Amino acid sequence: MAADDKDKLRKALREIKNLPTLPGIVAKLSKMAENPDTTTAQMGQVIGKDHILAAKLLKLVNSAFYGFPQRISSLSSAIILLGFNVIKSLIISASIFEIMEDQDVELWQHSLGCAVVCNVVAKRMGVSDPEEISTAGLIHDIGKVAVKMELPRQYAEINAIVKERQVPRREAELEVLGLEHAEVGSWLARSWNLPNKLVEPVAFHHDPGKAKEARLAAAIVHFGDIMVRGLGCGHGEDIWVPALNPQAWELLQLTPTAMDEILDEVEEKLWDVRGFSLDIKAELEANLQR
Amino acid sequence: MQQILTAMAAEGMVLAKDIETPEGRVLCGKGTVLTDIVIARLNNMDIQHITVDGHPIPVEGEKSLAEEVADLDRRFSRVTDIKPLMYLKKRLRERLIAARGA
To answer: Is residue A14 part of a domain?
Structure first.
């Protein structure tokens, strides 16, 4: 492919016109959080104005996906119990869920599964904000969605190459686009002003040794992707378990017993999140018909 | 384990997971052996799904154990030189077999 063409593709992807943006509420809440005088009640009011977002947030909080021990029934208690950073991760997750759920069910399942593994591993390793790592796991393949929406023709071409030649998706992407979905995903995450703790795991989930600020998060997401593929929640024609990065493995240092326990917990949680959807519309309708 | 419709539950099946009300109250614990009385009660309480040990109900179009194991082999076929991943594969294989047993 000529260098000009690649530049064009890059430009199209960088501009990303067709992908929905994160709701303005994320920026607004970030600003409020910087102000020490902001109260949780004020934050609750801002979130509460968006009924759908508020309902989704509570649904997510109470799902096996995040697995908080007690049931949380109101927004204000969610903010007090979980803290603003967790709530922000949840809002980002809820918004991205929506984009992915509509686009590609199989990718959605893969991402959910990866988020579950990330959560289990992060908690086990005593990371201070396991929810953030779940969110990173959830959005690690967001670049695939961007390619699909912005460049549908090239996306189909990539799929065809993976199917015909049985090569990993990354290889096909490099051939067709000159770049891979992890890089595209990192542009997108940056354009949403997500923190480096989320951007780096997206950017380096195939190559976690390159992460600088979020090395452990990148390693956990890398491993989450591997485990979920091992479990067969892969994506499309590219079914292969990718190679384990030695630097990431050194950070994780999981013993065989630890792997067994993680598998136990992950399988249990995967059962619970199977068919989990944030589509509250269908549910509301079902409730009305009862 | 297998998730089944309560309507397909039969005496002698063993619960693989707690049955909870929507409010999170445990109705019936993991390991309980189902009897007709328990099943009738679950039906009365409008519990639609339960999760039981083994794989008692065949599902149309479902892969056989041999096919599942072959898929697993294929998925791991490009990382056979990476020790931790071979361990992961071995455990996944054992789990597949255990889940289909009984």
So the answer is: no
What's the pLDDT tens digit per position in B71-81?
A: 999 999 999 99
Point out the residue among A240, A244, A267 whose CB comes nearest to the CB of B84: A244
Q: What angle do CA A285, A287, B2 make, to 5 degrees?
A: 105
Residue B42 lies in a domain: yes
Q: What is the ipTM of this complex?
A: 0.81
Task: Please tell me the predicted confidence (pLDDT) of residue A195.
Answer: 83
- Note every long-range contact of B44-49, with CB atoms under 8 Å and residues 24 or more positions apart, other chains counting: B45/B21, B47/B6, B47/B19, B48/B5, B48/B6, B49/B3, B49/B4, B49/B5, B49/B6
Give the domain extent around B72: 65-100
Among A27-31, A135-139, A186-190, A254-258, where is mean pLDDT lowest?
Answer: A27-31
Number of domains in chain A: 1
Give the whole-angstrom CA distance, residue A57 versus residue A61. 6
State the residue range of the domain holding A56. Answer: 22-281
- Average pLDDT, stretch A113-137? 91
Rounded CA-CA distance A9/A11 in Å is 5
Tell if the pTM clears 0.90, that is, is over it.
no
Inform me whether the C-beta atom of residue A290 falls under 8 Å from chain B C-beta atoms: no
Q: Which residues of B are less than 8 Å from A223 in CB distance?
A: none
Asked whether the beta carbons of residue B78 and residue A240 sit closer than 8 angstroms, the reply is: yes
Number of separate domains in chain B: 2
Sequence-distant (≥ 6) Cβ neighbours of residue A76 within 8 angstroms: A40, A41, A44
| DSSP three-state, residue B102 | coil
Q: Would you call A244 and B79 a contact, using CB atoms and an 8 Å cutoff? A: yes
User: Which are the contacts of A231, defined by CB distance < 8 A and separation ≥ 6?
Assistant: A113, A266, A267, A270, B92
Shortest distance between the Cα of B78 and any Cα of chain A, in A, equals 7
Chain B residues with beta carbon closer than 8 angstroms to that of A248: none
How far B38 CA lies from chain A's nearest CA (Å)? 23
Write the CATH number for B22: 3.90.105.10
pLDDT exceeds cutoff 50 at B102: no
Interface probe for B, chosen from A62, A70, A241, A244 (most Cβ of B below 10 Å), is: A241
Among chain B residues, CA nearest to A250: B84
Q: What phi and psi values does residue A23 have, to the nearest 5 degrees?
A: -60, 145
- Does one domain contain both B36 and B69? no
